[in-house]
Amino acid sequence: MYNKTVFSNGVRVVSEKIPAARTVALGIWVDVGSRDEVAATSGISHFIEHMFFKGTARRSVQQVARELDSFGGMANAFTAKDTTCLYSTVMDSTLSALVEIFADMFHHSQFAEDEVSRERQVILQEISMVEDVPEEQVHDIFEECFWGDNALARPVLGDPQVVGQMKGAQMLRYIGSHYAPTKVVISCAGNVNHQQLCQLLEPLWGDFSGGSGNHERVAPLPERSLPTRIVSKELEQVQLVMGVKGLAITSEERFALVLLNNILGGNMSSRLFQEVREKRGLAYSIASFIESYSDCGYVGVSCGVAPGSLNETQDLIREQLLLLGKEEQLLPDEMRHALDFTRGSLYLAAENLESRMVRNARNELYFGRHIPLAEVVSHFEQVSASAVAALARRLFSANPCVVIMGPVADHEVR
Known about the structure:
Elements: E1 2-6, E2 12-17, E3 23-30, H1 44-51, H2 61-70, E4 74-79, E5 84-91, H3 95-108, H4 113-131, H5 134-147, H6 160-163, H7 168-178, E6 184-190, H8 194-205, E7 228-232, E8 238-245, H9 254-265, H10 271-278, E9 283-292, E10 297-305, H11 310-323, H12 332-349, H13 353-367, H14 373-381, H15 385-396, E11 401-406
Parallel strand pairs: 2-6, 7-11
Antiparallel strand pairs: 1-2, 3-5, 3-6, 4-5, 8-10, 8-11, 9-10
Helix pairs in contact: 1-7, 3-8, 9-12, 9-15, 10-11, 12-14
């Protein structure tokens, strides 16, 4: 059973009761992420997320960690381009304690300068770790190329020079200006009573005032041409990412896009996996993926190949992108398999309380309403092969943005 309550200040609470469960997943979501930053604050959202765990007016760093561990579950947080989230899954009997400590972390974290200095080093190491993992670094470079001057081009972890100068007082001011109550969604799934949950939350969140939250997100320029970048680096493999403009997360064509992605490179029976790996052995892994936001998105393909196989692999990918636009090439069993895979993935995810909590929060953030799983499945079942082909023709007719990183030179890439 799904329920929603909006407090007088605009904080939204959504919950889904799963009577058979003995645990609950709780998430505190804020509709603020790295795309809301400017160059001078690059990485501040991610830094704030870290600092939520670094001591409050009532609890030391060690006490925060000890109390969260005492629940026997897992407590964590993440920052994305468009959201920041604190979340945990615990026994239902400890929900009230979790609600209280999360509120304390959110409202009363100290951002003490000695803790900021220590955590700064941790975050700088996190940034360095990405630079040591080519499969991750190439995606950051791709997004920088793909989004151009837009804030989406900057990595979530931030600019190391900016992070190196960030102060606790600066982060507190940022929270005060960006973290408006209307930007907050509290999502809970499991053995939870909605009325009792609201009774726990309202004293802690009902008076939260925060900032205005009136910062405006700027969509990327729609007509911007997409570049190709070759980054020479001594690696064993060449890392390749290519992508084209996709759809906003609320687009009516999003269901066709998911099926298109599954056919293209979303699983082991997909066209790219079969053509590139299984038939020719050119890559250990190759996949397509979707990245969507409230106003824009892209569809990408990534893989790692031997330097001598790069051009052949690129040709095969481009060939499959064009073939997807030909309706007669979409065989009935291919469409049926994509639907079965998608439907199965949705129902399997619904068995996980954290997945349900995340899904309910994202539906509230992007659509402002609960979307039953049966409704989603029904939309997928109505997608035709002609709709998938038409979408593929429109998306893949443009030249993709391409980033190649590895032991290759410009003249070796065609």
